[in-house]
Amino acid sequence: MKAQAKYVRISPRKARLVADLVRGLVVDKAMNILKFTPNKAAGIISSVLYSAISNAGQHAGVNVDSLRISKIVVDEGPTWKRFMPRSQGRANRICKRTSHITVVLSEG
Fold it and tell me: Is the pLDDT of residue 59 over 90?
């Protein structure tokens, strides 16, 4: 029972802070924590978690109430490079980072 979100426009460093909050928890408790966490990453991770729960529900003989987050990984995706014009003809580089978020659920 696994779900992935790829090329999400959030910094992996910021997403890992939220992922550490729910790693190893029961699904109901994790969804409750993510619901009241005021970060952009919390909404993204909760949608990936909801997708993993739905994927688990498709398998026969899986008790959705006893699911636990066995693994949650936030990997770095490709970085979008942009330029910001500065004074006197200069330019600074802006790196817009992306993430790949993976949630794996297990029973027990």
Answer: no
